[in-house]
Amino acid sequence: MDTPYIKSLSYNINGLNNPVKRKRFEFFLREQRPQVVFLQEMHKMRTKVNLPLLAHPHWRKEFSAYGTLSSREVSILLSPDFLFVEKDVLRDPKGRYVFIQGLWQGIPLTLASIYVPNKGQLNFIHNTFQKLFAFSQREILIGTDMNLTAEQKLDRQGSQLKEASGVRNILLPLLTKFGLIDVYRHINGTTQDYTFFSARHNTYSRIDYILMPQSQKQKYPRKLLI
Predict the structure, then answer these.
(1) Which of 6, 8, 139, 164: CA 20 to 30 A from 213?
(2) Is 147 known as a binding-site position?
(3) Does 151 count as an annotated binding residue?
(4) How far apart are CA 58 and CA 63, in angstroms?
């Protein structure tokens, strides 16, 4: 029977070398039971890049991109019950993104995990989205750490509310330009939630996103609900 939706999670995991942290994360995944997991910043040791990211055999289907710096690493983990047949993979040599092209239940689908740098976000996002759309087939699902908030009033809270003027209010226009929607905001409306705390600035912000094309929501209202 067809799955009515894709259950996906996206995390900047900020390192998985600690065995206790890995075990806790595996337990968390067993509780949440996602089909697709997008990860950023695994900090995997260079001597272990050929080993599975997680020990549990459930997550052996792994697609990763490792750059020269361990702080830049992205991965996509697929559950065995996610009926996806991969056809092509594009990895960033700098470890900032990995794209997988394939078929999900007969639907051409491209999965993308993207880690945006904390400087030069506008150019990076624009160029990476162009590469993704050129590589992709029909449908796209993105898990990403944007290092930016989409809507400051909803996605940022704390003593220092404003981002630097050079990056303020650039994400929503970019998403609109590429026809992408923020799935969390689409489902939850004006509900406020946060994925990152900055002790330096004493602010909470939501900088991690699941994105998909607006047209996808209209064509597959049940299948591609995250």
Answers:
(1) 164
(2) yes
(3) no
(4) 14
